[in-house]
Amino acid sequence: MAKVLRMTFATSEGGSFQLNIPDPLDTLDSTAIANAMDLIITKNVFTTKKGNLVSKKDAVVVETTMTDLYTPAV
Question: Which InterPro entries match (predicted)?
Answer without folding.
Answer: DUF2922
